[in-house]
# Entry
Amino acid sequence: MSNQTLSTLVAIYRRRNGPRIAAYLDYFRHELHSLDDAIRFACHGKEGKIHGHQHLVGKVKLEQARKELQRHADEITACKSFEELLTLVEDHTSSIDRFGVLAVYDTSLRLGAHLNLWPEVVYLHAGTKKGCKALGVAAKGGMVEMETLPEAVRALEPYQAEDFLCIFKDAFAGVGGKLKKCGPGSRSDC
# Structure
């Protein structure tokens, strides 16, 4: 894919998805005044609507995650980086069936927004791995450094790059069809 085409897709992402994801994460950062509320909404979704990414996890498993994370609220508050927060969420939810990589990342991103802790790298799940592969970016392990991404994608924040790679993965691969809405404010699978 040419850099110009990729720049065009980044511009489309910024116009179409940028305000949505910013408003969604601002809700966690500015509207939720307690960590308890942030944990509840991070697990159960805004206004009680389960996020599209987590509908396969199910309400019972999401409730288990909420209870587990609320038991560790002091540890969450003590996190100094997004990576530390992600590791903590992963450690405390690893025994919950179906609460996988994407649920851990999305929950951590929401809690991170509340705590003003942001990713510095792009964390990978199935959708972002496909996006990286289609762009020829080596995606070994659970993350990629921003510097390894094409120049146009590096203009985004890491959490936006994660969203972008997932949303546009089929466009990168030359697969036709409608672009999916994805990310923390959507109802689609990623």
Observations:
- The chain has eleven helices and two strands.
- The first strand starts at residue 122 and ends at 123.
- Residues 34-115 form one domain.
- Strands lie at 122-123, 143-144.
